[in-house]
Fold each of these.
Amino acid sequence: MDPIVFENVHKSYGEKAVLRGVSLSIPRNGVTAIIGPSGGGKSTLVQMINGLLRPDQGRVLIFSQPINYDNLIETRKRIGYAVQGVALFPHMTVEKNISLLAKLETWPEPKIDERVRELIALVNLPAAYLKKYPHELSGGEQQRVGLCRAMMLDPKIFLLDEPFGALDPITRNEIHAEFQRLQKLAARTVVLVTHDLREAFKLADHIVILNHGVIEQVGSGEDILDRPASEFVEQFVHSNLQEEFWGSPKR
Amino acid sequence: MGQSKKITAVARLCREVRKAWDCFVAFAPRNDSLVIAIILMLFVNAVFAQTITVGAKHFNEGYILAEIMAQLLEDRGFAVQRKFGLGGTLICYQALVNGEIDVYPEYSGTIAQAILKRTDAISFAELQNLLANEHRLELLEAFGFNNTYALTLRAERADELNLKTISELRQHANLRLGLSYEFLERADGWSALAKAYALPQRPVGMEHGLAYQALEQNKIDVTDAYSTDAEIPRYNLAILEDDRGFFPEYLAAPFARLDLDQSAKAVLENLAGRISETEMQRLNAEVAIHKKSFAETAHAFLKKEGLLDQDDFISQTKWMALRHRTLTHIKLTAIALLIAMSLAIPFGVVIYRLPAVARPVLYISGLLQTIPSIALLAFMIPLFGIGVKPAIIALILYALLPILRNTYAALNSIDPNLKKVSVAMGLTVWQRLRHIELPLAVPNMLAGIRTAAVISIGTATLAAFIGAGGLGEPIVTGLALNDPYIIMEGAIPAALLAILAELGFEGLERLLAPRHLLQKAAR
């Protein structure tokens, strides 16, 4: 069974329905991109995987188990999480940011040290950076540290909530390459929320298009381009690629 | 089964506590803060531990001797609290036993008879041993004089008759003796004395107060007195030596708890043998006849004896008073602040976690703030009486709001994205609080504590109105006397203290603030 399964999930904020009967299976060790217009429910969907949000109706299964909302801590520790703006803890050094979870798990000191050094090397940052504070780092560097932090306990599931959104195009390309390299080294189940269709095409094995709380289409990049399931998908793909092409979105 | 369960539970608890401590040490914003906290605690301890409480019985000589001891200790750097005017021997003794006072002047004869109920003669050294071994009290070396019953007559008359001892009185059967009724009637009074010395005179009874005048006017030749009475030098009297040792010894000495600081005892030993009967008479006369204050008299004596390391009396006593008041002031505000912090910070965390109660709690503590300080202090009197306790409680009530509100606001102003990530990472509520939320809230929390500290220093000046002491004392006195200079003696140090507190907290903020905030400010 797939590691993440949504079964007929509904969610509303007051009057506004954000998810309307979403059923979805996210396959193991692949990158699944969730894409769609703003307010389509992308973030809501991904925050249900680590229990930050709870469905009004339906259920979410992680590793074949329905989420136990009384013990989210254990579930969350097995799920890496990175968000837009990185949100590194500003009062901790890079090292402490990365190692916090392991320390709280009372890993032995040498093991923590080894893992931190392994991770920082993995994202191509010099070890000297460990002593720095987040504000001393560039946006791209912070993003890499954010990935290290999410990878510390070696989670099998990775949630990336538009983590690359705020980066400049060059840095974003670098991070993309980094990400692909890491995924090749050790494949994980990754859920990537993005509003950038090109990013989705580039990084994802599966693409989920979400609009007004309903899944419009699930498929590979090829499926989406060549065989759009609905008029909305066709339009969305068209306008999204055109935007990118012209460089300046107008709305 | 149940037993082993209990044991594992205890073991788990121990492990948790150690884990918490390890985490605290590892993640304290910077370890400096821990060091500072410890130093601060030691400092506070030192200030309070070194205070020596000197007691005194409610009579002239007791006050003078106690004041001499107190001033000498102060001169050598001890903080001294005076508890003078304690009712009688047994009250003083109980206070000493209970540790309410550390030392007071007492007489060997009184200790033997009134406290130990001994009727036989006991030497000073024996008494010292007995007290140390059986009562855990220490009688230090005697001041030097013996304040006992004595027979006295005018000095010129004594010279005339070449009369020096009580034995010699036998040869002057015609001398007129006017004795106090008490001395006449006591079992160990006249009749025993007359027997012991085979004295032939037939004394008349009279009021003790009138006896001196009768002597002066030559109506009588000899009367009884205490050997250190101020009247002896005043009327130029001589004391007849008790050459057969009839009267019990009343050697005055510092009577201390065995656990009194060794160095303080060493300081008090400087007084051993320094005060003769004549000297004590003179000191008594300074107060009783020349109307000098106890403090002045004590100081003049210590200065004459060359026992003072610091010299000027006026500036010294003012300086001492200032130091004493400032310490009291700091003590009042520090205790109030610490208690307010230990209440308001957890409360701030609680209302941050439970927004539903935040408004009522903030509202109530805000309401407390609006009560005028004098009124609040007045409310305290029927509830807690007067003195330090009600003052501290009032100060706590004032310090609550700034700390509470700032803690609450500080926690609420943390970047929601950081909170979201810390939740999603799988941190528990406590882990989030300890590692993320509280450290990030520290600068704003400190700002609240700083405000509370300055408010407390200001409000504490009003605590003098309910007898809590501190820098408000001269302000209250100055207001009563309409004397602006006296007011300034309290107002200026209080203002300086407030400024010092500001500066201190500024330093503390710089030390405890997360690095990223400082560096941003520096850019």
Note: Chain A is about 40% helix and 25% strand.
Amino acid sequence: MSTVLIVAPVVIANWSVISAAVAAGVAAAGFTTVAHTAARVGQELQSDRAMTREEIDIPDSEILEGAAATGETVVAEKDGVRAVFSRDARGALKVCMEGSGVSKSELRRLGEELIGRVTQQYVYHRLVSELAARNVNIIDEQVTADQAVKIRVRSW
Amino acid sequence: MASEEIEIEIGVDGRVTVRTKGIKGEACRDYAAAVAKIIGRIETSEPTAELYETPDVVRRVIDIHNRR
């Protein structure tokens, strides 16, 4: 028996931390990261008007201002579907999903799966680094059958 | 004394469940809240029987008093 809290993650970090979480998260979902600059991605998006697109905002997210945050993207692809992660005008993280022969609802489903994976990676790394900074002893880590990450720590 | 632990489960959707085990009294809520503060905001909280159990340190004080 125990006290149980359900926590909604808040993703706030600079671009380098978030892009690392994005790279790890998309890889966990079977996507391949493709390096692009913002200008080149913009040109590609305009040239292929047959693509279906769906844009998804990541709630409770903020990319801290900095030179690296402006215009930077992380692009990942899998089975003809492309995901472009970037910082929107309000400073939040967003993902633009696109693919040909794929419905908007399917793009949204894939996008939300990616967002979940990215958030999982961000939370895991933030938690582990904060616990280490507080000298908290991690007893055990494991990945469950449903891909959840479980961390056990001793009380401090 | 049972081992005092905090278990943190991070789902594939990013949502986090924090469970305390073996921590009695209000301390269980404090530990869980401290972990939750690192990650984000608490959505739901389910106190269980251990929250209302007397922490061991209080029981020891009573024992000393009764021996006198």
Note: The first helix of chain B runs from residue 27 to 39.
Amino acid sequence: MRAYLPDFTAERADSLPAALARLAEAPHPRLGPWQPLAGGTDLMVLLAAGKLPPGRYLDLWGLAELRGIEVTADYVDLGALTTYSQVREHPLLAAEFPLLAQAAAESGAIAIQNRGTLGGNIANASPAADSPPALLAYGAELELVATAGARWLPYSDFHTGYKKTLLQPGELIRRVRLPRLPPPGPDTLPAVHFYRKVGTRRAQAISKVCLAAFVLGDGQELRLCRLALGSIAPLPLRCLRTEAELLGPGALTPARVAAAQAVLADEIKPIDDIRSSASYRRRVAQNLLAQLIGVCNLSLRPR
Amino acid sequence: MKLCLTVNGTEHTCEVHPLARLLDVLREPLALTGTKEGCGEGECGACSVLLDGRLINSCLVPALQVQGAQVLTIEGVAAPPGHLDAIQQAFIDHGGAQCGICTPGMILAAKALLAKHPQPTLAQIREGLAGNLCRCTGYIKIFESVVHACKQPPTGADATPGEPAAPSGATP
């Protein structure tokens, strides 16, 4: 059943301060607080289905303060309204953060990628979203802003439960920061960037399981491993215990792979739902981990 | 709200709810019914139009986000009127249209693709049409129509339909 539009109020925000002031207003007795609207690829679906709560919606799409990709020597900042298409089209992101570029390329199809935003994907907080595992693998940070000021937090702290985040009422995500690696030098370790989304079909599908990993190693051991999965827990999950199994000296032998797979199966909390079953997701997550380790064993040989 | 937007080169002004879908604005007050509603949730691409030159699903864009925008719908693709676009002609010549519900969206998706990649690879054509569903033709004739609409024959590896995506590899 479609929404009854007269139950909804919406207006465009003209500037970030004006938007934050609106969001800080006391909730309306009937319509509640103002809710942010970005690219609309989630909210408009809910609206059409009659599942969007009636209320007041503030359109952020025109806010220049939330746009743009800024590159410095140490990091890349992406405005919260950066679209997937803009992620895909940015040559430095494709070169240095290919997991994010690949996540953007696998989120919906072109028409969705032209509207869906990184900040919206994060704030919407779906455990099946495609960009969060890539952002977790790269150690991203978020800047949140409100009328009271701004704060930074590690993205790995942001999600706290199913559709629950640390975003406070009145707060917006302003930008996402990705730390850059030092320029290549004699001591540079080989890197593996691994992203694999498993869905029903190749285009336009929501994932059953998604795994992103960023690994640095020297052929004898993995020195750094950030492993994150989507669609296997109530929130996008960085798998620290599985990472610990993979770090440390010694080759990644079949026995160690099996041990890491067992830890992963325990660390993730998949469920049966419309897209897949818990047992399938657990098995596929383990298979993707084995695939990742296979790529690491091939790619991280001593130079 | 009072919405002003330019559709197919003509300025329009109408009174709509700020969260009215662009799809409904096009089909109802503007009476441009070439843009179709399929799923209404951004999955099928039947409502695809170009918004400021970019392909979008008009069912997912609210009116307040298109204030002052330029929109191209299927009614504006033949330019000048009566002279079919190369993509439209190719759909006729190669059987790319059957029931017709997906066709406007397919043609707009192909239009966006060829604007961005005037000489696309076969894989780029496949990706450019990936957000548009067809329940009649099995896609091959649509794909071939777009191939024939290209000025140069497309090249490059073409993935077999249904083949899984290549696993992501390592970077050195």
Note: Chain B is about 25% helix and 15% strand.
Amino acid sequence: MTYIAQTPDQIRGLIARAKRWDVIFVTLGIIALGIGLLTFVALFVDMLADGWARLRPEFFTQFPSRRAGQAGILSAWVGTTLVMLVTAAVAVPLGVAAGLYLEEYAPKNWVTDIIEINITNLAGVPSIVYGLLALGLFVYAFGLGQSIRTAGLTLALLILPVVIVATREAIRSIPGMIREGAYAVGATKWQTVRDHIVPYSMPGILTGVIIGMSRAIGETAPIITIGALTFIAFLPPAPVTANFPFLSFEWLTAPFTVMPIQMFNWTSRPDEAFHANAAAAGTILVFMTLAMNGLAIWLRYRLRKNIKW
Amino acid sequence: MEARTQPTTHATMLGSAQPGAKAPSASDAPAPPLKAESRDLSFYYGNKFKALKSVTMPVHEDRVTALIGPSGCGKSTFLRCFNRMHDLYPGNRYEGEIVLHPDNTNLLADDVDPIEVRMRVSMVFQKPNPFPKSIYENVAYGLRVRGVRNRNLLDEKVEESLRGAALWDEVKHRLNEVGSNLSGGQQQRLCIARALATDPEIMLFDEPTSALDPIATASIEELISELKKKVTILIVTHNMQQAARVSDYTAYMYLGEVIEFDKTDTIFFKPRRKETEDYITGRFG
């Protein structure tokens, strides 16, 4: 028998040498993290400093103006909010249904495989392509106009792959034994999906939806392509009316602008004063995204509390 | 039936297929009526692997039948044929039949819905798998699936099932708490209550105590002995002492075949086949 064991001193030397890799990796990791974090902080702080003077309450309640000092983002943030509403209302049901179908119902064959590969690839298609598709399909073919509903549908298409993939991941994380437990008492597929699969995958689905929405909220290219306005001094019609039926969907067809377009418009002005407005709008956009991510984390925590296997 | 030449089957298995008929037995006491029978059952995982080879075995009414054998012998596969669990995964295939008495329904027939089978034959799994829902909803789920909406009836069945699973006194004041917060043994009894709530004709237990400590194991075994008064039980176990303690009949399986089936006492004290004896005495497996 060959002994490989050495004296205690030799063993300690071995461990010390092996542990050196831990130190090296930790150092590399911190550097990598630092590069990413510092870049973001530098950008954000610079933007905040530029826009700080403009971050006043009036900035949120004023329409854009020819005078930089009086220009605000009212129409932009209202537009963004409404477009996001339409996006969520379209992308969530479609994406969740598609994910559920693929994961629970679809037969495992080559057609399903091709669909799967395509969905994954769709997530990587440049957003301008979605914009061109939407221009041809929604604006011209369907005649939906250069409206909030067109923008919402376009961004919904854009984030659909993200929602589908997140739904499928969330469904896959449900242990097989829970599914078997439901089937074993005589549940049908639909009963299992409705009573177990959907509720237990909800935290993951919501996370995916909000990650998708955070991407959509900053998109500029597809919105410009479908013809969003860059200067708009009125709001879409209110969704609530004084008369029966008290709800109005006219806002869906209204022209609009969104935050990134407002920003883009201000940055391209020669007048320096507008650049401060752009920085301020950018800061707010970053906060909107952060708020959505925060909401995702909170919801996930709340919903996961009672889901243990 | 008479033409069957399965060399490994015992006399009890060749009894009449008539529902309720007494099968001839090697021992003195007459065997209880049959609840189910597997006849020439073969099972394939995909097209490649034949996991069960012409298994023929009776299941006696209101008795505990244990399936023992080394890992990979097909005992869990056999058990999961009884509630068509294999139908959940593509590519699996059955041959032969499992007949459920008294109505002579072939559980494996193509025109029998697996959901119908699972409504009659319930199952308790190896690892406790309560739903992440309240204790009450866990037990009531089988009833909800059957469309029971009446609150009084639900309350009544939930209590009855939890009592039947010897869990009622421990949880009666916290029925709305999440089931997964219970201890492992309690979770398994909750799963038994869930399987019991729908008045199954047969209950399948797939190594129900392998994830539990000795005390929880003892309580589950005691429960199984209690349950057989009103329901037929089929249990897979790795633990031969457990088979000896809880079962009335035992089947020794090896490489997808039932090598020997008989009363548990016979299997453990005077097995007819050398392979069974080797396994029981620990020379093999």
Note: DSSP finds ten helices and ten strands in chain B.
